[in-house]
Amino acid sequence: MDSAGYSGTPLQMYEPHDLYVKIGDEARLFCEAFVGRIDLPDAYNEVHWKRMEHNGSVKPPERFQVTNKSREDNEILGSHLLIRGVRREDFGQYTCQISNTWFQSVDTSVWLREIVPYHDESQDKTAYKQILLVFAAVILSSLTLVALYLRFGLQVRVIWKDSFCRQETNDGKDYDALVCYDDRDSDFVLGMLVPKLETLYDYRCITHHLGSIHGNFGTEWSAVLKGPAQHSRRLLVVLSPSILHDSWTSAALYEALHALLTIHNKIICIALQPLPKCDPTKNAQGESLSTLLHAVHLVEWRSEGYCVGMGDRSREHKRFWASVRLHLPPHRYSRQAVSLKQELNQMSVATTGSRVNVCTAVGTSKRGTVLTNSHESLEVLV
């Protein structure tokens, strides 16, 4: 073809493809055609970009930049349409029209489209499954930790207290616990509580029975317990109807606890029976029975299923001893000492087994000879 005399319709040189961009990105459209060369003084070629809409075509906005380029001695004419910061209204069809001197033209169309994120439902299902698995694992782990804490948490706290808490040995006090009780509860105190605390757990105890004290708790108890309490790290009181003169009411219990709190600031109360219903009414000082119960460490004893000589094999009794030990002073002792004390305790139980009914529940009125490790708590019950 003789390009110097070509006067036909411009020939498209480049076939554009649809362009996919994101909102805010830069888009560049391009078209190119062969227009030839005509040796006329007024010969000229033109390029126009248009945007196609439903009701026709419109010129691109002024913010669009059009750059025309020619090559091969102006025989090939091309054009770039640059869009910076693409907006949503910029998406659509664009037409590049290249015309020659004879008003002949060629149109090149191209689409500017928005990139749509690929949505894979299978990946979503996999992600949901993974989230459910993680959630189930967290729930299962939490339930396992809660179950382990409910089963072994108390024992772990006791071991931690005895192993790492600061010992109370240099406080000038001679005893770990002052144990107060009524004569009618001596089987429980002298037959099981004190011997086990002394022989198995190596606590030094002193006992004091309050059965002969009658009248006002505040004046009588304070007078007889103030001295021994000053030499004891804990005040351990066995609560029962007998120690309250058979008045197992919230008022009597309030009076007793109020008197005990004036004697010692670290009190452990062992309740042999369920406590009476607390009266929510507060006195002039803003105190109630619930307030005083929160100020002491309350441990409930359940005699069901306990047999002398059989040990504390039930879960409730293990929790009882762990609860009592948790509030007693920290104790360091070696495994060898513990095993030796366990053997001595078993020998003692075996020796007394011939004299005591093996399955007699602690807390009844049976009496027998009791030996303790502390000379101050040595008593013979008739």
Describe the structure.
- The protein has 382 residues and is of the alpha/beta class.
- It folds into 2 domains: 3-114, Immunoglobulin-like (Sandwich); 166-377, Rossmann fold, CATH 3.40.50.
- It is built from 7 helices and 14 strands.
- A 5-stranded mixed beta sheet has the order 2-9-8-4-5, with no helix packed on it. Strands 11-10-12-13-14 form a 5-stranded parallel beta sheet, sandwiched between helices. Strands 1-3-7-6 form a 4-stranded antiparallel beta sheet, with no helix packed on it.
- The radius of gyration is 48 Å and the shape is rod-shaped.
- 23% of the residues are buried.
- Mean pLDDT is 81; it is low at 347-382.
- One of its GO terms (biological process) is signal transduction.
- Interacts with host IFNA1.
- One of its GO terms (molecular function) is hydrolase activity.
- Belongs to the interleukin-1 receptor family.
State which percent range the strand residues make up. 15-25%
Q: So, the CATH homologous superfamily of the largest domain?
A: Toll/interleukin-1 receptor homology (TIR) domain
Tell me about the largest β-sheet.
5 strands, mixed
Low-confidence sequence ranges: 347-382
**Tally of DSSP helical segments:** 7
What sequence of helices (H) and strands (E) makes up the elements?
A: EEEEEEEEEHEHEHEHEHEHH
Rg over CA atoms: 48 Å
CATH topology of the largest domain: Rossmann fold
Query: What would CATH call the class of the largest domain?
Result: Alpha Beta
| Total discrete domains | 2
Walk across the major sheet and give the strand order: 2-9-8-4-5
N/C terminus separation: 139 Å
Identify the overall geometry: rod-shaped
Architecture per CATH nomenclature, i.e. the level-2 architecture of the largest domain: 3-Layer(aba) Sandwich
- Helical fraction equals 25-40%
Category from helices, strands and their pairing: alpha/beta
Number of strands: 14
Q: What's the mean pLDDT score?
A: 81
InterPro entries: Ig-like_dom (IPR007110), Ig-like_dom_sf (IPR036179), Ig-like_fold (IPR013783), Ig_sub (IPR003599), IL-1_rcpt_fam (IPR015621), Immunoglobulin_dom (IPR013151), TIR_dom (IPR000157), Toll_tir_struct_dom_sf (IPR035897)
Family: Belongs to the interleukin-1 receptor family.
Domain Ig-like: 10-109
Domain TIR: 173-328
